[in-house]
Amino acid sequence: MRRLINIQPGWLRWPLALLPFVLLALLYGIGATLRHAENPDDKVLPPLVAMVSAVERTALTPDKRTGEYVFWSDTGASLQRLAIGIGGAVAIALVFGLAIGLLPMVNALLAPLTTVLSMIPPMALLPILFIIFGLGELSKVVLIVVGVAPCLVRDLALAVGKLPREQIVKAQTLGASTWQVLLRIALPQALPRLIESLRLALGPAFLFLISAEAISAENGLGYRIFLVRRYLAMDVILPYVAWITLLAYLMDTALASISRRVFRWAHGAGHQG
Amino acid sequence: MSALSIRNVWMEYTGQIVLERINLEIESGAFVAIVGPSGCGKTTFLRLLLGQERPTRGSIMLDGAPMPDEPGPDRGVVFQRYSVFPHLTVLGNVLLGAELAAAPLLGRLFGAPRRRAIDAARALLAEVGLAESEQKYPAQLSGGMQQRLALAQALICKPRVLLLDEPFGALDPGIRSEIHTLMRRLWRERGVTIVMVTHDLREAFFLGTRVVVLDRLRNRPEERQRYGATITQNIEVHRRRTPDADLESGRDDPARMDPTRRDDPVRQN
């Protein structure tokens, strides 16, 4: 008998990966059927048909009052907030992360501050953001920035700080100025790491987005979920949750494939002809 | 006129004296090999020449002027590891020096200047035997090829002094003798002054025109803090003319190890 640590999945890889999903769906189906048989008006575990019709209602028919397709306008609003928030966080991370990692003086000045700032629970700041920036778009975007940026900054600074000293010296012997070391040596080697930590930050980013929308918004995926919760509308909530999950998963996959394609050197040198 | 003049240099880290009374004149075009036991401050000495550290006392002059106290393009360097940039292709690595010099803001060249720089880089790559690998990344190269690349990368900036920190220490013997031959050819063709730290005596005497030995004269445990290493031997290597013959092929083949190369008193030619 071979040891468990030596047994490879081989062709079983895909079936194995699908198995838990199928089981979960099956479990849900059984639960929904049982509850439905007991009480035809059950709302907690709506059958698939109910969810499909809810998606049809929100995604394919215009809203009677506004004429909008609620599902898509929610998605658009949320993605816009997310994009601006993450964009802001990445910009901050690039400027401060590179400076802290590469310049000893900036490191001495800002590294302790960044560490302290990253310990503040962002959700505790939300009331402050609402007071300062009002209940509009800005406070939601700022929450995402505040929540995501400190980790990105710290991670980037660490990555840049870990560049071998030899490389920095070598660049100088090739005539590089501080700016050129930053631009040609530090930045390109930091970018794959930035993408990596951005992938990990997608979860928190969505968390802050949904939270901010739940508390104060007029549209958005998080707003919708928390709105229909009042009517126990699981047939809307579940598709929305699945949709959010899918969006996050697609972003993660896209980032990973961009990194592999653009920074081939960082992913084990792929041979070429 | 000497390229490097090291005058009474001391190096001390918080109470620990590493180097003391270092006096050395290195003439232009010399190939100085620095040897010595591990931990005697060979690499510290190279760092001083590089400008990565400042001597506690004494001065270092480069072509008669005090040496700048930070690394610069007048002094090239090849380390044992991490000498090339993993995110640039072979060509990109060699191109970098030219690009940095010509484009202070972007660090990149475009159009005709770029094509000229590429031609120069390709010529140099051909010289070190990497012409076929120009699109590869360093991680795809063997250790010996990476060091050849590092040499080409350093030489494109035409440094006055080339500093080598155990550059061939991690290579296996066959590759090493190949790269020795290349090293000697490059040194001869370019007339660059070279200071190389090594722990391989054979290498030191094969390549160097001068072998400098660093050692601690007082090495008892209670003396270690207060006495640093200094130059204990400064040997000029008188080279016979004949070994040059094997370089005339112009090819980068391994150095011949035939018995005639021994320093026998009687030789027939």
Structure description:
The complex is a heterodimer of chains A (273) and B (269). Chain A has 273 residues and is mostly helical. Chain A has a single domain (59-261), classed as MetI-like fold (Orthogonal Bundle). Chain A is 76% helix and 0% strand. Chain A is built from 10 helices and no strands. The longest helix of chain A is centred in the last third of the chain and has 38 residues, at 178-215. Chain A is globular and about 75 Å long. In chain A, 33% of the residues are buried. Chain B is α/β, with parallel strands linked by helices and 269 residues long. Helix content of chain B is 29%, strand content 25%. Chain B is built from 6 helices and 10 strands. In chain B, the strands form 2 sheets. In chain B, strands 6-7-8-3-9-10 form a 6-stranded mixed β-sheet, sandwiched between helices. In chain B, strands 2-1-4-5 form a 4-stranded antiparallel β-sheet, with helices on one face.
CATH class category name of the largest domain in chain B: Alpha Beta
**Order of strands side by side in the largest beta sheet of chain B?**
6-7-8-3-9-10
Instruction: Identify the CATH architecture of the largest domain in chain B.
Output: 3-Layer(aba) Sandwich
- Which range does the strand content of chain A fall in? under 5%
CATH topology of the largest domain in chain B: Rossmann fold
CATH class descriptor of chain A = Mainly Alpha
Give the total of domains of chain A. 1
Question: Structural class, from secondary structure content of chain B?
Answer: alpha/beta
N-C termini distance of chain B:
36 Å
| Total number of beta strands of chain B | 10
